[in-house]
Amino acid sequence: MTFTPLTPTDIAPGTSRFVQHEGAAFLIVRDADGALHALDGLCSHALLPLEGARVRRGHVLCPHHGARFEIATGAAKGPPAHCGIRTWPVRERDGMIELDSDA
């Protein structure tokens, strides 16, 4: 597991945060139930950052063109994206959020 510059209090339920770590971009999401998820931080449609992505009903919405991805699996659920994005193991530990970017 690797460090992210976020603490659990930085992400309220139903929100996301874009982070960059060691040259890679990730989107950390806390769903409406409070569970953490991590996805690739670039949209598969145009490879633009998902910074500012909204969280709605188990999905994240790309702020650029509205592509929709399932939080739990990264599957593309709405155009213009036709390919999903990768998900990553993430956990809360000792007051920090850790992301396994080696998985």
Description:
The protein has about 100 residues and is mainly β. It has a single domain (about 1-100), classed as Rieske Iron-sulfur Protein. About 0% of the residues lie in helices and about 40% in strands. It has strands spanning about 1-5, 15-20, 25-30, 35-40, 55, 60, 70, 75-80, 85-90, 90-95, 95-100. The protein has a 4-stranded antiparallel β-sheet, with no helix packed on it. Strand 10 and strand 11 form a beta hairpin. The chain starts with a strand and ends with a strand.
Chain-wise SSE layout:
Layout (H helix, E strand, L loop, with lengths): L1 E2 L11 E7 L2 E7 L5 E5 L13 E3 L2 E3 L6 E3 L5 E3 L8 E2 L1 E4 L2 E4 L4
Antiparallel strand pairs: 1-11, 2-3, 3-4, 4-9, 5-6, 6-7, 7-8, 10-11
Sheet/helix structural class: mainly beta
Sheet of most strands = 4 strands, antiparallel
**Would you identify the CATH architecture?**
3-layer Sandwich
Name the overall outline: globular
The CATH superfamily label reads: Rieske [2Fe-2S] iron-sulphur domain
CATH topology: Rieske Iron-sulfur Protein
Identify the notable features of this structure and list them briefly:
single chain; 103 residues; Rieske Iron-sulfur Protein; globular
